[in-house]
Amino acid sequence: MVMTLLSGDGPRSKILAVILAAILISLALAPFLFPGVRSVDTAARICVFILLVASYDLMLGYGGIVSFAHTMFFGMGAYGVALACTHMERGFGALAVGAGAGALLAAVIALVIGLFSLRVRAIFFAMITLAVASAVAVLVSQLSGLTGGEDGLTFKTPRELTPAFKFGDRLFGVKLNGKLLAYYLVFFGSFFLFLVLLRIVNSPFGRVLQAIRENDFRTEAIGYRVVRYRTVATCISAVGAALAGALYATWLRYVGPDTALSFDIMVDILLMVVIGGMGTMYGAVIGATLLVLAQNYLQSLMGAAAHATEGLPILPELLSAERWLLWLGILFILSVYFFPTGVVGRLRQGR
Fold first, then answer.
1. Which among 163, 187, 222 is positioned nearest to 23, based on CA atoms?
2. What letter does residue 10 receive in the DSSP assignment?
3. Confidence of residue 6 (pLDDT cuts 50, 70, 90)
4. Separation between Cα atoms, residue 206 and residue 9, nearest integer Å
5. How close are the terminal C-alpha atoms of the chain, in Å?
6. Which letter does DSSP use for residue 62 in this model?
7. Distance between CA atoms of 104 and 110, rounded to whole angstroms?
8. What's the confidence (pLDDT) of residue 334?
9. Fold of 2-349
10. Which of 67-76, 286-295, 329-338 has the lowest mean pLDDT?
11. Distances 216 to 43, 148, 235, 270, 298 between C-alpha atoms, Å
12. CA nearest to 252, candidates 140, 153, 117
């Protein structure tokens, strides 16, 4: 596989390799395999969250750094694109400037937070990042003249990425327009950045991060500057999250507190990391795919199941679409119970 050649880290499980290949092929051909606005939007969201969760796994799974500010960095990339596209001439230049500015700002803030906070105990660092992220979310909501406040910003992307742009008639029944190009921009951007993160965690730098995670005192004793490595990891992770936010804003052509800065997104990231498997990178692929699909289709499936069991006692009430969050929670508990090291960890243990 491409990922093995570039990073030296393969799935190490035949079942996992098949699952990853199926997800990759499904996402690469999603507009053709699953035509429809909702399904393509779901595929784009999976691509973005794979990158977002992988960037967080670099911190948590490899560096042992617990942070609640990841949505803040995600939002910086999203708002960077939105503001650049709003105030600059329409085109790909605005996208590049917005994404670059968001990533740079995220790296600078991550550097400041890391230098001043990573010397304290993990729980205190987590609380500091939570406080900073909450302050930024409130600030964005208050600066309505610049950020649109609670209403957010709707902006124009390059015409080549909109449904109005057509470069052909149809291919296998799919319209050849800018929306298709926008999807592949998200797909290839996420795929390339995921490979970069995979290469980083399998480099000597990544090995030192794993040593710090296992025993930071011992790693410091043999000559590695623990705070420096953790700070660099935080900055790299922040840049990855900001670029994921930039891709998501480009796809939606809208950014707001609910889509980029909500604490619910942070909870989703944590769930995806735990379900997929911390410290594996491939866990980001599994976790993001499972949770995004559950969020988008579990409610519909439960509604269909409730309708199919109308004549039976209790079952229709239990399977009501209104209780989809309850069943999502039960599925999460079961996944943690049966896969304590995540899906990827379990598959690698049982190979």
1. 187
2. -
3. low
4. 12
5. 18
6. I
7. 10
8. 83
9. ABC transporter involved in vitamin B12 uptake, BtuC (1.10.3470)
10. 329-338
11. 39, 43, 19, 23, 42
12. 153
* Cβ–Cβ under 8 Å, residues 80 and 256: no
> What's the CA gap between 252 and 185, in Å, rounded?
13
| φ, ψ for residue 314, nearest 5 deg | 65, -50
Alpha helix stretches (DSSP H) within the chain: 2-7, 14-28, 30-33, 37-57, 63, 70-87, 92-117, 122-142, 144-147, 178-201, 204-214, 216-221, 226-252, 257-260, 263-276, 282-308, 315-318, 324-338, 342-349
Rounded CA gap, 72 and 70, in Å? 5
- Residues 216, 217, 221, 222, CA torsion sign: negative
As a whole number of angstroms, the distance between CA 203 and CA 8 comes to 9
Domain boundaries, the chain: 2-349
Do β-strands 254-255 and 174-177 pair in parallel, antiparallel, or remain unpaired?
unpaired
Phi first, then psi, for residue 182 (nearest 5°) are -65, -40
What pLDDT digit, counting tens, does each position of 14-29 carry?
A: 889 999 999 999 999 9
Single-letter code of the amino acid located at 7? S
Does residue 159 come out as left (phi exceeding 0), alpha (psi in the -120 to 50 range) or beta? alpha
Q: Residue 343: what pLDDT?
A: 87
- Residue 4 pLDDT more than 60? no
Residue type, 269: I
DSSP-assigned beta bridge partners for residue 170: 175
Instruction: Specify the pTM.
Output: 0.93
User: What are the residues facing 174 on neighbouring strands?
Assistant: 171
pLDDT beyond 90 at 312: no
Nearest in space to 287 (alpha carbons), one of 231, 206, 341, 219: 341
Secondary-structure percent of the chain, ordered helix, strand, coil, rounded to 5: 75, 5, 20
CB atoms within 10 A of CB 247: 27
pLDDT of res. 127: 86
